[in-house]
Amino acid sequence: MANIKSQIKRNRQNEKRRLHNRYYRGSARKFVGKARLAINSGDPEAAKDAVEQAVSALDKAAEKGIIHRNNAARRKSRLMKRLATLAK
User: Fold this and answer.
1) 47 Cβ contact list (under 8 Å, min separation 6)
2) In 44-58, which positions are buried (b, 16+ CB within 10 angstroms) versus exposed (e)?
3) First-to-last CA distance in the chain?
4) How far apart are CA 29 and CA 33, in angstroms?
5) What's the pTM value of the predicted model, to 2 decimals?
6) pLDDT by residue (tens digit) across 13-39?
C-alpha cells in the first residue's frame, strides 16, 4: 500500500483509467465476436451490419489509445476478409 500522497493519487487515477479502458476494450471484443457469429451464420445482410458495428468499436478503442491502431487495423482487415468470402 502506498503511503506517499502523490502515489495514492496516481493509484486512484490508474484505477479509474483501467475501468474506462476496460469498457471500450470489452465492447470492441463483444462486437467482433458478434460479427464473427453473424459471418458464420451465412446471412450477408446481418453480417455486414455486425461488421460495421465491430469496425466502429475498434476505431473508437484505437482513437482513445486503448488498443494500438495497427492492432485495430489488423482485426478490421481480418473481419473484412471473412465478410468478403461470405459475399462470394
Assistant:
1) 35, 38, 39, 41, 83, 86
2) eeebeebbebbbebb
3) 58
4) 6
5) 0.86
6) 999 999 999 999 999 999 999 999 999
